[in-house]
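Researcher: Here's my situation. A collaborator sent me these components and asked whether they could plausibly form a single complex. I don't have experimental data yet, so a predicted model of the whole assembly would be a useful starting point for our discussion.
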Amino acid sequence: MSGGNIVARRPFPAAAREELGDAQLRANLRKATHTIRDKRLRVVGEVPDWEALRQSGAAIKDDVLSRLPELLEEFEATATAAGATVHWARDAAEACAVVTQLVRDTGATEVVKVKSMATQEIGLNEALEAAGIDAVETDLAELIVQLADDTPSHILVPAIHYNRSQIREIFTRNGLSALTDDPPALAEAARRHLRAKFLSARVGISGANFAVAESGALVVVESEGNGRMCLTLPETLISVVGIEKILPTFRDLEVFLQLLPRSSTGERMNPYTSLWTGVTPGDGPQTVHIVLVDNGRTETLADDVGRQALRCIRCSACLNVCPVYERVGGHAYGSVYPGPIGAILSPQMSGEGANRTLPYASTLCGACYDACPVQINIPEVLVHLRQTGPHPVAERAAMRALSWAMRDRRRYTAALRAARRGAAPVRWVAGRRGTVRHLPWPLSRWTSTRDAPLPAKQTFREWWATERGQA
Amino acid sequence: MSARDEVLRRVRAARPAVPVAVPREYLAVDGAEDLVALLVDRLLDYKATVRRCNPDELAGTVAELLSGASTVVAPSGAPEGWLSGYQGRVLRDGEPQQLAVADLDAPGVAVLTGCAVAVARTGTLILDAGPDQGRRALSLVPDHHVCVVHSGQVAGGVPEALARLADPTQPLTLISGPSATSDIELNRVEGVHGPRRLDVVVVVG
Amino acid sequence: MKVALFVTCVNDLVFPGTGRAVVQVLERLGHTVEFPVEQGCCGQMHANSGYREEALPLVANFVKTFDGYDAVVGPSGSCVAMVRDWYPKLVPDATEVVARTYELSELLVDVLGVTDVGATFPHRVTYHPTCHGLRLLHLGDRPRRLLESVRDLELLDLPGAEECCGFGGTFSVKNAGVSGAMLADKCRSIVDTGAEYVAAVDNSCLAHIGGGLSRTSGPAKAIHYAEILAATS
């Protein structure tokens, strides 16, 4: 029922192992995630009503999910009345087909793109390329990734895995000259490269951060102005929007325009936010299309616990605070949605491939839940998704045996005694240190990175029985 | 079944049936006392240039800020008085026709606009395509944007500012500092595709 | 006050000294400690690993075993968090026992109103706030306040204290590489403080941290903070 770039091809542990081996990547990620963490904490800390905003943000999104059919129909009606044409797509393939046809109808062979998770999700660039249409990514980071023939590794900062000197090298390889590897020089090189494309583009393609049902307005939140270029200068604008992006009213933006910038880039407000409602004569694109996409969202919506993932506003605060993401980066998650939110969103939107390993890619430390501006309880959903496995046969047998033993006093006491006795010879080997350096499989997975403790010589309940004459 | 009907059918089947009450306990009104000072502080933090002046000084201040520009683009509704001190060439958009993008992109072109409302707490200027602001391309393509804000237009927080907009279905642009990117090692760099220089004139009184 | 000790399965088998320490501290303060022998595991490992069905009998056993006590104390942030966070969702009639189940520092500071438990521990100690203690139980500075009141103890700040150590239950074996990378960073921070001990509220995290520390050349060892609070010389 869904598809596109949301299906991991390799199990997370295997992909993560590979990324972990890249010391440069880890250094880049550590620097970047810590920088943005600190910025976010600073600007969130200065908002006295932050918790109230989070509560409202979560509730508005939940309200949207409960009224989604009506709100979608309302949005379709208002956007249409304002001069836009609304299209619907069940899945990634259908969305790509709709957009490709719309571009073909204009006769254009090149389109300029605003950074958009929805178009990455559906694999639009690949589809357009197959149809002979060049899709030019205009966000600096997306441009870097596109020029490197790579995939994004972060929702908000797709080139977070590259440092400045690596970026300069990518630019040079592609004929963009930057005088130094200073970020301003690199930004200037990108500006020169893209300027001509903006000024001549006939078709712009965007996503939307929000879609307002009562008016038919779309909202794009950005920094560089590349978004404004794509949304303003072309004759035709095509926006690909996930069905959960709806907000009931314009007023609801007063909540999200406070939550989103501070959570994502750690700024009080992002440099540019654009709102447009259909077609405005004499101002901006005169042909406006909106493609509403399902692609697995309704499957997610059907799950009582998991549907909260659809509140996500793609701020990526959860990525930046996640200790697992910080070590492995976005590619290990195998989906355009990486990090904690990806670990609950990707497997719900598509149960294919290795997505079922993603809910285990977390220590359940809870930093993501604390940071989430719409209070998505990511650990809760991770644990919920683990219910459906995969459960290795040996693990399931062990869990069942433990549960059976530990629910009954006699069996439990006997099991503890057996474990203590079984450890006796190992303790002899362990010697004075009291810990074990190498254990046979499967426990070797523990001792691969740390020593293992041993059962004590006397369990607590044995001590208690001796001391207090019970048990 | 059409894609539309199929998606709507799925949504109807999947959505939770319980109504949700939306609390709005957040601040409707920002408590800041000196809104102009707060706005100036926030704009400076974004690396915008800020000038405070009284109404009599406006033309002189604008002229000074535009001294490096050979041509100034202005929306048709921008008051004559704003530009009375400026010596260079003035192009009015839409008089009689819209300026070409190439005109806006030419070297030495600056743009002068007003705004609909400003948000002190976040250092944001909101343009709603009003007569003194014009269409969106004007404040986008030229590399230098001078924006006039009257102190009466300054709202405290985001909720107050959005509520002041007369018609939110007009094209809206929220501007918070010059264009910027944080894409390289998450360091903020001012100046990418939008105007690299943003000057704000806050008219008090 | 009659306090029931919920020792936790890991402590019962591997770290009985922590259970003994809790008994010592509470008895020193004049309270009666009981150890209901019917107790087993709280079910956290099962619930968090996706075995809710297998967790349910353990949860039921906990609720039955600890029914009727003034207070239940567990020297484990994650096990107490399991009770407080999960039990209401799993067994709706558990609210009473859930409300009276405390992590040790909550019992001492909030219920008994004590921060000085009469301990002496002449060592340099740093404190790692475990994730479930920090973000699920919101223990805040309670454990630190208890440690600060220990005589002759020098409490050292741990940089990046609130970052996860990488344990995460079955995560530590399912994603051993990532877990190890997180552990290495945590161990480096601990060693850099120059502390002799890293204290925490959870022996499962400490087993992981201690297992990493014993592979470093530094002197730092892992210790449950209850054992520090029990120490008198």
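Model: Some features of this prediction you could bring to your collaborator: Chain B has a mean pLDDT of 96. Chain B has five helices and twelve strands.
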